[in-house]
């Protein structure tokens, strides 16, 4: 039996620690705007895409409706978004920004610069890190999909 794995040698722990550190960095900045980190992510989607069906927001953020619905309700109570049932399909809900929600984009504009400075990376370093993390996510998701498909196949016999 080999030596036990060391915590500091684990990629999973490095990712976990980095994620917690970055989220903690955002917390006081977002508190000033009255947002949580997940709410900020929803607002980013809406600032980028404009009005969107709930389903599209969930897809963009990789969130299911059970997680997303409470976030949207809180954002609506805060006066930042409106939820509207679509006439042509009552099951579909479209999310739009209120004037206050649109105005909040101005306050949020400096956040990426502050976070980038705190990370100690210039723009090319941030771009490289983001691209590496996207590739990692795609690779892990692809691996999990292949594993699930292979488990679902009946054994040849």
Automatic annotation (TrEMBL):
One of its GO terms (molecular function) is DNA-binding transcription factor activity. Pfam families: Staph_reg_Sar_Rot. Gene3D superfamilies: Winged helix-like DNA-binding domain superfamily/Winged helix DNA-binding domain (1.10.10.10). SUPFAM superfamilies: Winged helix' DNA-binding domain. Keywords: Coiled coil, Cytoplasm, DNA-binding, Transcription, Transcription regulation. One of its GO terms (cellular component) is cytoplasm. One of its GO terms (biological process) is response to stress. InterPro entries: HTH_MarR-typ, MarR/SlyA-like, Transc_reg_Sar_Rot_HTH, WH-like_DNA-bd_sf, WH_DNA-bd_sf. Residues 8-138 form the HTH marR-type domain. It comes from the Bacteria. It is found in: Cytoplasm. Residues 126-153 form a coiled coil. Its main location: cytoplasm. PANTHER family: ORGANIC HYDROPEROXIDE RESISTANCE TRANSCRIPTIONAL REGULATOR, TRANSCRIPTIONAL REGULATOR, MARR FAMILY. This is Winged helix-turn-helix transcriptional regulator.
